[in-house]
Amino acid sequence: MASRTFGHITVTTPDLDEPGLYLSVVETLDSPRGSVQDFTYGDVDLRSLALTGIQLVTGRVGDIRAKQVEFEALNLHGVEITSSDLGSVRWSESKLTRVHFRDCKLMGAALDGVVLDDVLFEKCRFDYASFEKVRAGGPVAFVGCAFTEATFTDCDLSDAVFSDCGLKMTEFGGGRYRETDLRGNDLSQIRGVANLAKIRIGPGQQTDLAQALVNELGIAVGDD
User: Within 10 A of 221 (CB to CB), how many other CB atoms are there?
Assistant: First the structure.
């Protein structure tokens, strides 16, 4: 199995080049059987992409450009998604296992009730996205991702890793962040510092958190 290590966690990623595995080109990710397996799909421009009650198992998705995207009960296992613009995707009540997103845009996305297990997001854009009741059911890593003005609400990101991410005005609302690894990020402009009990930070980041708290409370610092 392929794997990547970030901080204290190891993420198992899809191994789609293993001997004997053949991926067939498909024209759609929808299926009356409710499952698409051993597939490759992509290089398409779509006005809308809506999938409900579908399982995608062992496959590659690449170069999708869709204006309106809605996924409900869309479960992924062993899937790689690259260089795709999923617009302001609405993704709810789903489970992602051994999934690797790379160079994807999910700007303005709304993830609700999504469970992540062995999921790696690499160089993805989540600006203005909202994460609600998203749960890390296993190793989860965000590497080199942008979260400008993104919000996390009622999420369980215990043990998740954020590495080299842009967290400008990112808001961490109520939730569970025990052992969430925020080392190697600029934390000076995050919001919801009081909710980040038991997180991991590195030397020098205490100053970042202090600055974030000063900004959040609107404290004026001066001699006069």
Answer: 6
